[in-house]
Amino acid sequence: MAGGTLTNLAGGTLTITADVSALNVGGGDTIGNAGLLRKTTTTGTTTIGSSIAFINTGDVQVQSGTLDLAGGGSASGTFGSVGQRDAAIWGNTYTLGSASSVTGAGTVLMSSGTVTLTGNVSLSGTNIISGGTLTVNTPATMAVTNLMILSNGTLGGNAPVVVNGPFNWVNGTINNTGGVTLNGTGSLSGVGSGSMSLYGLLMNAGQLTWSGSGPNNL
Description:
Helix content is about 0%, strand content about 55%. By secondary structure, it is mostly beta strands. It has one domain (about 15-210). The strands form two sheets. The chain has a 17-stranded parallel beta sheet that branches. A ten-stranded parallel beta sheet has the order 2-4-7-10-13-16-18-20-23-26, with no helix packed on it. It is elongated.
């Protein structure tokens, strides 16, 4: 893309059937989806590259493989991860508005940049924060029924986050003032001084193990 805009209008369906990607060579590009955009057939990665904003006001379904939104953007629409592989990777700066929702059984990975969530998230797959920042703000609701991993980065915001499945915290920061509630089996296992930094609220109602080494929790 070289300064252009690709738009899938309401009522349109854009189906990605190969591991193709959109790369930026000009700057100021946009891919917009107001209809149905789905990735299917193959199990690799489709990347919406850096400097390409992805604006979703419709429905995005990752039925197989990975959709990597490396260029950031915003959404008032829905994301459904019905597959068992990586469903979505948000990068750069991405804002999920109050009308948006993220659902499904795939893997959602926040690996870089800042994702601000004010919509609803209900996920039964694997959810990983590994270098980025996920900010969950009111009126958002976030419920995770399966595995959540904080291996680096930050889980912040002022809205409650409920983890009903396993929770593994090995590195990074919790700075969520709405409260992260653990109802399942959890582990805090950082290695080294300050590997896990707690500034917000972490509340355990399940079975939590604290291990690792050094003054790992500050």
